[in-house]
Amino acid sequence: MAEFHIVMFPWFAVGHITPYTHLANELASKGLKISILLPKKAHLQIQNLNLHPNQITFYPLNTTSDADLSLHGLLTTAYDLTRDQVQNFLSITKPQFVFCDFANWMPDIARPLGIKTVYCSVISPSMVAFTLALSRNVPNDRRITTEELEKIELESLPASYPSSLIMHRDLHEFRSVLMLLSLSSRDGTTLFERVTTSRKRSDVLCMRSRRELEGNFCDYIRNHLGKPVLLTGPVLPEAGVTNSSLEELWADWLGRFEPGSVVFCVFGSQIILEKSQFQELVSGFELTRLPFFVALKQPKGCASVEDAFPLGFKERVKGRGVVYGGWVQQPLILSHPSIGCFVNHCGPRTMWESLLIDSQIVLVPFLFDQILNTRLLAGDLKVAVENLSEAIKSVMDKDSEVGIMVKKNHAKLRETLEKPGLMRGYIDQFVHNLQELLSQN
């Protein structure tokens, strides 16, 4: 087994900290020692995910992680103010590697100590490739202006970009990504400059994906940056690790329906709908005339999901439809035999969960990385469909040409992805690649 030390310093957001912790669990199972540097509050929230406490240690930092994206400047300031703490920790512990994403200053403190910096991305290679392709459209030293945004068209993507996934209808989201990348921290550094510098100055890049799905994007990234791109596989936690059985309430409810007949819908913790969007969504499920289980946060301005129901909705779907506003055991629900269709936002983790279950996939993306993931699954791979009511009917109808096509394509891809030892092989190869990087010294 490998015996070296990795320090992880993720961006101070749950969507970054959680996948870093899942990766730490996989690496710890191979004998690696992992130290994860986190704000004190995040340390308390995430420690239950540590499956290898003898190998993984959380070290709390004196800062905060409460700021949201609208307070980007405050969050980046809090993140950067930990630099001295991080440098001191690295100086004392002297790990072989430090994994990070938005710490553009990390190579400056790691390299003099003989520590290799790994840019560890939580977003998909397709999104990383897309942001690299945008490099000629985003100013390095200031926010992009509205006038500059309006002049940008999809044709500005270079010919070498490895996909035609981006469509004209995505132009608004395309421009919103540029605006997001031009957000500035208090010292004037844009998010684009921060991310670009982190990638260019790191020794190696780490991606949570597989070549079978996004190999062309990984090649584009490697050619663009001229450095290794190592893949870990999707790194999903096993459903039975923390929960031995599905909650009795949901097990009993799902058990009332025929195998493969229930539609299950989640949109992740970050997606909060407007009331009108929520009503349109649940009305769409009602129109399918199929049993459904929807787990979403209450809409903006509503005290609960029930407060946002369309008039008479609860009575009309009684006995066949549930809309729940609390936390649910998503992996265990997805593995229940009554689930036949999974409606989701196609976030990085949910995309992989969709591919590795035997259910039809319907995608309703909200953010731009989710749109890119959706174009990959529904466009290039043709294992899913977009939109809602009619899409659900088409994939759940056993005689539908669309349903038959996506089910066949999905089954073929699952067969490839589930080959014995393939998932574990990615982590084994990843650790081997890290060892090779050390031997190059």
Structure write-up:
- The structure is a single chain.
- The chain has 441 residues and is of the alpha/beta class.
- Helices cover 44% and strands 13% of the residues.
- It contains 19 helices and 13 strands.
- The strands form two sheets. A seven-stranded parallel sheet has the order 3-2-1-4-5-6-7, with helices on both faces. Strands 10-9-8-11-12-13 form a six-stranded parallel sheet, with helices on both faces.
- β6, α10 and β7 form a beta-alpha-beta unit.
- The radius of gyration is 22 Å and the shape is globular.
- 39% of the residues are buried.
Summed up, what is this model?
This protein is an alpha/beta fold and 441 residues long. It has helices at residues 14-28, 40-46, 72-80, 83-93, 106-110, 125-133, 146-151, 171-181, 191-201, 211-225, 248-254, 275-288, 313-316, 330-334, 348-355, 368-380, 389-396, 401-417, 422-439, and strands spanning 5-9, 33-39, 56-61, 97-100, 116-120, 204-207, 229-231, 262-266, 292-295, 321-324, 339-344, 360-363, 385-386.
Main beta sheet, described? 7 strands, parallel
Task: Indicate the mean pLDDT.
Answer: 85
Give helix % range.
Answer: 40-55%
Strand order of the largest sheet: 3-2-1-4-5-6-7
Strand content: 5-15%
**What's the tally of helices?**
19
Tell me the distance between the termini.
20 Å
Task: Count every beta strand, where a strand is a DSSP E run of 2 or more residues.
Answer: 13
Specify the overall morphology.
globular
Low-confidence stretches: 66-71
Structural class: alpha/beta
Radius of gyration: 22 Å
